[in-house]
Write a structure and sequence with these properties.
The protein is of the alpha/beta class. Helix 1 (21-32) packs parallel to helix 9 and helix 3 packs antiparallel against helix 5 (156-163). The strands form two sheets. It has an eight-stranded mixed sheet. 30% of the residues lie in helices and 22% in strands.
Length: 259
């Protein structure tokens, strides 16, 4: 039995949230062959709501860059950021002019006025609905495990300097970054999942495409980068498959004789 870990954005679905039919078939065949399929995402659990995604059939979910793990709907692990720490970090982002999303297993929090002129809050609301709440007014109620921020000017460098001792900082090609508690990553999530479920590291595979996938692609026995992925993702992987919309998942699983 092998275990395969799949990133979501740019891997399972494209920028329009469309999942190729070949990907659906590939995951079905993978599980029919007795292997395990896991989501492994930078998104927190509250941001993994789509029935179209979840109905593909997964044995578990690693969310929030390794800060949350579940198996068949049963929570196995959660690393929550203490509310006082969340307030400290939020103050840094505000001082550095960085629109922020506070991301938890149940809700996402943002203040829409910080994203004026950007349709991202509206897109988030379409995906998570009532699970998108304002930061302001929910003080003391926040529940989160990571942050994502946009960069508006050079002040973001000050935030990085202030927070790098306590957070893994993943800077994407778009002017945004994820701030994850130190020591947590998709790789740490996979390692803990394997320990909890008795999966051998040599039986692990992962598909990814971007900066928050690098440690995952290096940690598993067989890292597979999407053809549409970044150059760094491709360098970190053992194998580069086709683009997402050119049957990349199907071809990658076929290459390793998993389907």
């Amino acid at each position: 039995m092998k275990a395969v870990f799949f990133d979501i954005d740019g891997t399972l679905w494209d920028q329009n949230l469309l999942i190729p039919e070949s990907t659906k078939e590939a995951i079905r065949k993978l599980r029919e062959n007795g292997h395990l399929a896991f989501i492994c995402s930078g998104r927190t659990r509250s941001f993994i709501q789509s029935p179209r995604l979840l109905e593909l059939g997964f044995d578990g979910i690693i969310a929030g860059c390794g800060t949350y793990i579940e198996e068949h709907g049963r929570e196995l692990f959660y690393k929550e950021i203490e509310k006082e720490e969340a307030a400290r970090v939020l103050a840094v982002f505000r001082a550095c002019h960085m629109p922020v999303i506070m991301e938890g297993k149940t809700n996402l929090y943002l203040d829409e006025e910080e994203f004026a002129g950007n349709d991202y809050p509206a897109r988030l609301r379409r995906e998570v609905g009532e699970h998108l709440l304002p930061i302001t007014g929910n003080e003391g109620k926040w529940e989160l495990s990571k942050f994502s921020c946009a960069f508006l000017d050079e002040k973001y460098k000050e935030a990085i300097a202030l927070l790098k001792a306590d957070y893994e900082i993943l800077i994407h090609e778009a002017p945004v970054a994820e701030f994850v508690p130190k020591g947590y990553s998709k790789a740490s999530g996979i390692q803990m999942t394997c320990e909890l479920l008795g999966i051998a590291q040599e039986d692990t595979y992962a598909f990814g495409d971007s900066v928050n996938d690098l440690e995952m692609l290096r940690f598993v026995a067989h890292g597979i980068a999407m053809g549409n992925g970044t150059e760094k993702a491709k360098e970190a992987a053992e194998y580069v498959t086709a683009d997402l919309n050119e049957d990349g998942i199907y071809k990658g699983l076929k290459h390793f004789a998993l389907i």
